[in-house]
């Protein structure tokens, strides 16, 4: 069973640029959630994708957008990067609705984004 | 407004002793609680969870206790081992509209150090 993978591991961008982060969900999982973890903070929910549609969104501006593909992999896109976007971006996958384990999300190693 | 609070930024215990990590929450809609462990440069790793219909869940050395009236949960690790040294996050979720939004709300984490 393959776990959650993310790419790239690290990324450096300048203010105003755009970035795309990628995530492959754990085998058998159909839901992907994205989180932003700033230094010294817990992960903050950005949005969740289920069956290729956005299924809930946190308090993040529209320049944060995403996609989910038929194979359940996902992308996080951030436009017009700001210095405060520097953070660890975590992707998490979870299983089928209706199962007791549905709430248990399994995280990838994250992408460290630095905005200069 | 922080809905999940971990008021102890750090905790230090001796190997073999009990580690008790605490978490408080304010949102009475939360019905599922999870603990994650995070090592540097890795994503959070799921440890143990508990549903709001239970007051205790045990898995090996890890036990989570839930006190709904106090809106408080705790993670007990017995016996503590040096490999348990990591940041521990408490997280909570609430069944959203349509029963499909299981975003996790995290605390800021507690750094546990287990000394040999």
Can you describe what's shown?
The complex is a heterodimer of chains A (116) and B (116). By secondary structure, chain A is an all-beta fold. Chain A contains no helices and 11 strands. In chain A, strands 2, 4, 5, 6, 9, 10 and 11 form a 7-stranded mixed β-sheet that branches. A 4-stranded antiparallel β-sheet of chain A has the order 1-3-8-7, with no helix packed on it. In chain A, a hairpin with a 6-residue loop joins β4 (31-37) and β5 (44-50). In chain A, 39% of the residues are buried. The mean pLDDT of chain A is 90. In chain B, β6 and β7 form a beta hairpin. Chain B is built from no helices and 11 strands. In chain B, 0% of the residues lie in helices and 52% in strands. Chain B is an all-beta fold and 116 residues long. In chain B, strands 2, 4, 5, 9, 10 and 11 form a 6-stranded mixed β-sheet that branches. A 5-stranded antiparallel β-sheet of chain B has the order 1-3-8-7-6, with no helix packed on it. Classes of the chains: A mainly beta (116), B mainly beta (116). At the A-B interface, β4, β5, β9 and β10 of A face β4, β5, β9 and β10 of B.
